[in-house]
């Protein structure tokens, strides 16, 4: 039986992350983790390095053709990432 002050596990983890100011780092890590799901197998196979620094996503792509195509749809990728995260995690993408 639930008590009136009980919270769900999701709410508890959310409060913990906010209390210790870890929410932004958690969101940045999740962006790196779901990059292959978000971009697909073809882009994920050509991605050699990906990391987030100061709300910028840095992606090293080994194919210049894929890199050029991704640069054309940069704003769409940023929107997809932020929608998936549920917050504005990424403000810019840098392709290396």
Task: Provide a concise account of the structure shown.
This protein is α+β, with helices and mostly antiparallel strands and 96 residues long.
Describe this structure in words.
- This protein has 96 residues and is an alpha+beta fold.
- The chain contains six helices and three strands, in the order H-H-H-H-E-E-H-H-E.
- It has helices at 9-19, 23-33, 35-39, 41-46, 64-72, 74-85, and strands at 47-53, 56-61, 92-95.
- Strands 1-2-3 form a three-stranded mixed β-sheet.
What topology, given as strand order, has the largest sheet?
A: 1-2-3
**C-alpha termini separation:** 54 Å
Outline the low-pLDDT stretches: none
Sheet bearing the most strands, described? 3 strands, mixed
**DSSP helix fraction:** 55-70%
Instruction: Please provide the ordered H/E string of secondary-structure elements.
Output: HHHHEEHHE
Q: How would the global form be characterised?
A: elongated
Number of helices: 6
**β content, as a range?**
15-25%
Quickly list its features.
single chain, 96 residues, alpha+beta, three-stranded mixed beta sheet, 6 helices, 3 strands, 56% helix, elongated
Record the SSE blueprint.
Layout: H1 9-19, H2 23-33, H3 35-39, H4 41-46, E1 47-53, E2 56-61, H5 64-72, H6 74-85, E3 92-95
Parallel strand pairs: 2-3
Antiparallel strand pairs: 1-2
């Amino acid at each position: 039986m639930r008590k009136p002050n009980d919270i769900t596990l999701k709410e508890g983890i959310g409060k913990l992350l906010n209390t210790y100011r870890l929410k932004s780092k958690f969101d940045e890590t999740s962006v790196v983790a779901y990059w292959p799901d978000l971009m697909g197998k073809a882009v994920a196979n050509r991605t050699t390095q990906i990391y987030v620094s100061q709300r910028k996503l840095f992606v090293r792509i080994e194919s210049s053709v894929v890199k050029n195509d991704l640069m054309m749809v940069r704003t769409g990728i940023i929107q997809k990432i932020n929608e998936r995260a549920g917050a504005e995690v990424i403000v810019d993408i840098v392709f290396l």
